[in-house]
Amino acid sequence: QVHLVESGGGVVPPGVSLRLSCAVSGTTFSINAMGWYRQTPGNQRELVAEITNRRTTTYADSVKGRFTISRDNVKNTVYLQMNSLKPEDTAVYYCKDLTDDYWGQGTQVIVSS
User: Fold this and answer.
1) Along the 113 residues of the chain, how does pLDDT read in single tens digits?
2) φ, ψ for residue 62 (rounded to 5)?
3) Shortest CA distance to 77 belongs to which of 1, 9, 7, 17?
4) What single string gives the DSSP state of each residue in 48-112?
5) For residue 81, what are the contacts with CB-CB under 8 A and spacing of at least 6?
6) Which of 18, 28, 38, 96 is 20–30 Å from 88 (CA)?
């Protein structure tokens, strides 16, 4: 059975950093592309960042230079390092297995003073 479990969200003031983690089980993690999406109320989920099995990365323009996606194929975990957080980064963040189309349950990030 496939499980994607996100963690690391929280309430933080603008300008600080957070690191989200997504622990994956039940998939061929090391050969799968992985991604982070986010969603705000009334809006569709948007792709924030993705990483291929060869560690090629892609970012949404809104997070380039601030967010970094990475993966640990030993721990079967994908990370999203988020720096210089802004109020507009407030959203529920979801991890996705892009190859096999599985989603995690999401973790809330609130950036507010």
Assistant:
1) 999 999 999 999 999 999 999 999 988 898 899 999 999 999 999 999 999 999 999 999 999 999 999 999 999 999 999 999 999 999 999 999 999 999 999 999 999 99
2) -70, -15
3) 7
4) EEEE-TT--EEE-TTTTTTEEEEEETTTTEEEEEE-S--GGG-EEEEEEETTTTEE---EEEEE-
5) 17, 19, 67, 68, 69, 70
6) 96
Q: What angle do CA 63, 106, 35 make, to 5 degrees?
A: 50
> Cβ of 111: how many Cβ atoms within 10 Å?
20
Amino acid symbol at 69: I
Which residues are bridge partners to 95 per DSSP? Answer: 36
Dmax (CA) for the chain in angstroms is: 41
| Residue 40 DSSP one-character state | -
The pairing of beta strand 46-51 with beta strand 102-103: unpaired
